[in-house]
Each structure stands twice: as C-alpha cells, then as structure tokens.
Amino acid sequence: xxxxxxxxxxxxxxxxxxxxxxxxxxxxxxxxxxxxxxxxxxxxxxxxxxxxxxxxxxxxxxxxxxxxxxxxxxxxxxxxxxxxxxxxxxxxxxxxxxxxxxxxxxxxxxxxxxxxxxxxxxxxxxxxxxxxxxxxxxxxxxxxxxxxxxxxxxxxxxxxxxxxxxxxxxxxxxxxxxxxxxxxxxxxxxxxxxxxxxxxxxxxxxxxxxxxxxxxxxxxxxxxxxxxxxxxxxxxxxx
Length: 239
Fold this sequence. Notes:
Blueprint: H1 16-36, H2 41-69, H3 82-96, H4 99-118, H5 129-150, H6 158-182, H7 207-238
C-alpha cells in the first residue's frame, strides 16, 4: 500500500477516524438494502453493479494518481493485497453474477475485510486519499457481499467453504511467485504489517503463515454457521 506519510500519522484503532466511517457505512448499507427491496430485480442488479464500479474506479484512480505524483514502488504499492485486488475485480462478479464467484468472495471478503476493518492498516489519516481509498474498498466490499446475501438472496453451501479455501491457495501461490520476483511482501507472506493485526497473535515468520493456513477452514466454517442455521430454520418452517 502507498506509504504517503510517517507512521506517526497512522489511523489508530478505536479513534474517530476508525469508528466514524464504519458507522456511516453501516447506515448506508442498511438504507441501501432496504431501498433495493422496493425496486425491480433488474434495478437491484444494476444498483449493486454501479456500486462495484465505484469501488473499482476508486482503487484504480488512487493508484494512477500515486504513480504519477509520488515515489510509487512496485514492490510495496501495487494493488495486489487481497482487498485492493478484490476492489478492482468486484465489478466482474456484479456483472456476471456467477454463483461460484459468490462462493469464493463471501468468505474472502467477510474473513479478510472484517479483519482490515477491525485493525485498519492506513498509512495516513483523514483526509488523505489513502484514507478514503482504504475505507471505500473494505467497507464497500462488505456492502456488496451483504447486498448479495440480503437482496439478491445468494447463500453459500458447506462445500463453498472448501472451494473458497482452494481458491485462496491459488492466490497465495501467485503472490509467492510475485513476491519472489519483486522481492516484495504482498499478502504479508514475508513479514507482518507495520500496524497491529491479528497476525501479531500467530507467532513470528513463518509460523504465522502456517497457523493462518490451519485456521482458515475453521474460520470459514464459523462464517458459514449463520447460513447453515438459516437453512435449517427455513426447512423446518416448510414442513
């Protein structure tokens, strides 16, 4: 991610810079979902696609601006971290609306993005471009996924847990190759982020990578539990 300032200006956990965007996004998402339920199916799909395009354009524009105006470094600044990459690619999902894409994204976004929301890794606070880019991506991706769940009525299956895990391994392998080629640290495979994160509780390198891999399927399974409970209740009511 683009380092546009010193570590002293990093967004602190539970600061107003942390809490306010989350609160605003929650209000916007709930309002959006309620409104979407009052419009036609075609309009619902068009609305979420426009939101996805906004997220993607925000990420691309941010990186173009930084490449032109800052000391852009391909070893640290390319949008290859999972959330940034998903931010660019999310319009593909909202346009084609393939179920297998949802199966992968629902776990990637909820597991990865919520971690980023709880422990933000933002180099420069409000009102920097990096600050807005970070929250647009993380909170925007969550909005797209919850919109897909509550408006488009998409639900993962238990086998989706394993599909998403296997897809993540493909991403990890690609990042290992890129990191080796560029001497980079994308997806934090070579070292932990500078700011506080859940990786701090998983040991030093390379143990935190191994531990993270071991807890991915249990974590994805926990995310699946509400969907499982909802399906069980639905079946019991239909009897």
